[in-house]
Design goal:
single chain, 17 helices
């Protein structure tokens, strides 16, 4: 039999109290949901109408992609390029969904509706839970709180854009990326993950002066395959003791259970 890796259905001993899960989920939902105000202001300042701004939050509902889209439009970028950049930023949510589908184990009829809430914040809260019950509670409370607040504050921000004036002077356009980075940073636990993030930042920022708005985001996506290719080139030499940190070599061996099992079987 194969070992089950999904979160167990119930755990009376090790389970996290429901109240604690709700408290944590509400904290994340409220803190991030309020930043929808910054998006509403930024979107209106970039030239989008009130219905267009609200539709983005209602239908797209992924802050990084929304800020990328309106930021590219505000910089004079081509709408198709801006939309492509926002799309590729949102692709990460599909990978979140692959993992959350195992943890939540929702009925098929509910999955299309739950998919709308598969974003950075709900994923972070869900993955931090020890049982399936707490995963479902954390995901639902975070998603509901964030969806309601994000859309409400988007509306308020778009309505109040004229009163605020120049959004660049207030620095509100940086709120979305700041929240995204704050959520991403704790998840970068390995050297490879940090290298991908660092290279993506260098590509994105370094190419801003020379490429049209929205294109640097697309190029930054090449950081992941580039780092993985370099890591694959270095791994064989580390495994055979040709330089590198001994701890890195030990980690590579640990990450290759199939090879290790084969060697053990030959002894």
């Amino acid at each position: 039999m194969t070992e089950q890796t999904v979160v167990p259905d119930t755990s009376a001993v090790e389970g996290k109290p429901d109240a604690a899960v709700v408290r944590d989920a509400l904290g994340v939902g409220v803190a991030v949901g309020l930043s929808g105000f910054a998006f509403g202001v930024t979107s209106a300042g970039s030239g989008l109408t009130l219905p267009q701004t609200c539709a983005l939050s209602l239908l797209v509902f992924t802050g990084a992609s929304q800020f990328a889209l309106v930021g590219a439009l505000a910089a004079g970028g081509n709408p198709l390029t801006a939309a492509a950049g926002a799309f590729f930023l949102g692709v990460r949510n599909a990978f979140y969904g692959l993992r959350l589908s195992q943890l939540l184990a929702l009925p098929r009829a509910v999955r299309p509706f739950a998919a709308q809430w598969v974003i950075d914040e709900t994923t972070a809260v869900a993955l931090a839970q020890p049982t399936r019950r707490s995963v479902r509670i954390g995901f639902t409370v975070t998603g509901l709180t964030l969806y309601v607040l994000w859309n409400l504050t988007t509306l308020l921000g778009a309505l109040g854009a004229e009163a605020i004036g120049d959004t660049d002077a207030w620095g509100l356009d940086a709120a979305g990326p700041a929240v995204f980075l704050a959520l991403l940073a704790p998840m970068l636990k390995t050297t490879t993950e940090r290298a991908v993030a660092a290279l993506a930042v260098l590509l994105g920022l370094g190419l801003l002066p020379v490429l049209p708005a929205g294109v640097p985001v697309l190029v930054a996506a090449l950081a992941a395959p580039a780092v993985l290719w370099a890591e694959g080139r270095r791994r064989p030499s580390r495994l055979h003791g040709k330089g590198g940190d001994p701890q890195d070599r030990a980690q590579d061996v640990a990450q290759s259970p199939a090879e290790g099992s084969g060697r053990e079987g030959k002894r």
